[in-house]
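Explain my protein.
***
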Amino acid sequence: MKITAAARVATVVAVIAASTGCASAVAGQPTPVASCAFAQPKATAPGPDSQPLIRIGWLSVWSPVWAQTDSVIVYTDGTAVGANPERPDDLTATPPSSSPTFPATSPDSTAAPLEAAQGGWIDDCELSALLDRGADLAGTDMGRLHKVMDASSAAVWIAASDGRPETKMSVYALGVADDDSDELTPAQREARTSLSAWLTAVRGAIHPTGPLPVDRIRLVETGRTTMMGGDDPGKPVVWKGTPPFLRDKDEAGETYSKSCAVLTGKDAQNAMANLAPAQTANGGRKAPFGRGAFLIDGKLRYFAMVVLAPGEHCR
C-alpha cells in the first residue's frame, strides 16, 4: 500500500504532539489538552522591538529578492506573524477569564494600499515543543531533487535558545515529489516529511489576533520592468512630500536596482500615501507588495514597496 505524503505529514505531526503532551494544540486545534493549557501571553502580537526566534520563508526563483518576505516569524516573547488556516475563527477563542485584550486593528492597516501581516501568539508549551523538534531536525540529510526545475526552497532559521544551538536549514523543492522520487533515499524522504510536518505544526500553533499596523515598509527603487511578468507600474503620478533616496547613477536597462531602505513612522505613511494613487492608475491592485511610477522633480522613477514584519529588513 502506498502511503501518501499528506498521510506521512499527519502521522509525524501526531508523533511530535504526543511526545510533548501538546497533542491537540500542536496539531492546530483551538482547544489544547490540559497538559498544554493556555498560559496568558505577555503580548498577543509582535511589537516594533520584538526579536525573531523562528523564521520560515520560501525562496522563489520567480520573484526578485526584494519582493520576498518570511511567511512565518515567531518571536522570543511568544508572539508571531503568519496566517493560520487551522484557526480561521480564533480571533475570539482566547483563554477564559484571564483572556488578554487583543490589540485594535490600526486604521492604517485597513486603508493602506498594501496587505497587512497577520499577528498572533503561540503558547509557551507548544513553542518549547516546536523548538525541541526543530533542533532535532538540524543537520538531517534531506537530499536534493536535481530533476525538479524552478521550484522554491524552504528556508528555516531558529535562534539559539535555552541550550539549543542555532539552526539553519535550506531545502530545495520541499514537498515536490518527496513521496516517490528516485533521487531520494527512504531516510531522506522521511526527513523531508518530518520537516514538512514541523512547518505545518508551527503555523498550526499560532493563535491569530488580526492584522498588524502597516507601519514598516521595504522601499526598493526598480527599473520600469522587473523579472515578474505583468507588473507594469502604470501611469506615473507626482510624488508628494519628502522624496525617497536617489540613485547614484543612471542604470537604465537593468531589471531592478540595489537601492533599498526600510521606512517606518511618518516616512512609511508618506510612502503608502503616494502608492495609493499610483496603484489606482494600475487598476487598484492591492497586494503584499506594490509598484508604482512616480514623477520626482520632473524625473520618472519606479518604486516597489513591501510590508515588513518586525525583524525583517532589506534583502
